[in-house]
Design brief:
Radius of gyration: 23 Å
Strand order of the largest sheet: 1-2
Number of helices: 9
Order of helices and strands: HHEEHHHHHHH
Mean pLDDT: 74
Number of strands: 2
Structural class: mainly alpha
Strand content: under 5%
Number of domains: 1
Helix content: 55-70%
Shape: elongated
Distance between the termini: 43 Å
């Protein structure tokens, strides 16, 4: 008995498999996850001196009150510029390969988060000074977690979920979920206080200076996580090419 050879293209199952493989390669080629993460990491690191310089701290005998004005001055325009730059990079890469880019929903989501943060921050700054929540008592953990979720770093994580859906990128989905868990569940316990091992040098001692410094560790952690994620995704991309 002899077997007659047939071109691979005559086999529907083989043809379907080839189409799926090609579609997968196209999706992987369109992914610029590392670009988004590296841009967002840079934006996060640059935010630290803005938060430091524009933070208003007023201390008297009864305690200290502080307002992080730098967040409002810096993050809305920074997020808009960052997401515009990411979208442009995606579109250029897609056109260079003769492909279509699906980054517009991500850019729109990112821009919308900037608007949401600005509105929430402005409303909170106007309302809470005269209407302290929980009768001025200790704030519950969920309050800090919610505050983190609508802060710029929490909104970055929500936008990353949209990007993971657009790219059909399971690795990015897992990264975004882990990032959000860190931001929402872990960092609220350290923001506004010193992390273990975080010592204020004697020449920087003082209540006002300690308040300013206490906000820095969490921002450094967020920036480092985004940077590490960007480097890791860049290495994976190079390995796939």
């Amino acid at each position: 008995m002899t077997a007659e050879s047939r071109p691979a293209g005559d086999d529907p199952r083989r043809l379907l498999s080839d189409v799926r493989e090609l579609a997968g390669r196209v999706r992987r080629d369109q992914r610029l996850t590392h670009v988004a993460l590296l841009v967002l990491a840079a934006v996060t690191f640059v935010a630290i001196p803005f938060d430091w310089l524009f933070m208003q701290v007023d201390c008297d005998g009864s305690g200290c009150v502080f307002a992080r004005r730098g967040l409002l001055y810096y993050w809305p325009p920074a997020l808009l510029i960052a997401y515009a730059a990411i979208a442009v990079r995606y579109v250029r890469a897609a056109r260079a390969r003769g492909l279509g880019a699906r980054v517009l929903p991500y850019a729109i989501t990112g821009a919308a988060t900037a608007v949401v943060f600005t509105a929430a921050y402005t409303a909170a700054a106007a309302y809470f000074p005269t209407h302290p929540p929980f009768d001025g008592g200790p704030l519950p953990f969920w309050w800090f977690a919610l505050d983190r979720l609508i802060a710029p770093w929490g909104l970055i994580g929500l936008a990353l979920l949209v990007l993971a859906r657009l790219e059909r990128n399971v690795a990015l989905l897992l990264f975004a979920l882990g990032y959000l868990a860190l931001v929402v569940l872990v960092l609220p316990t350290t923001d506004g206080m010193n992390l273990p091992g975080w010592a204020v040098p004697s020449f920087l001692s003082g209540t006002e200076m300690q308040i300013r410094l206490s906000m820095t560790p969490s921002q450094l952690i967020i920036g480092a996580v985004l940077l590490a994620g960007g480097i890791a995704f860049a290495k994976v991309r190079r390995g796939q090419r």
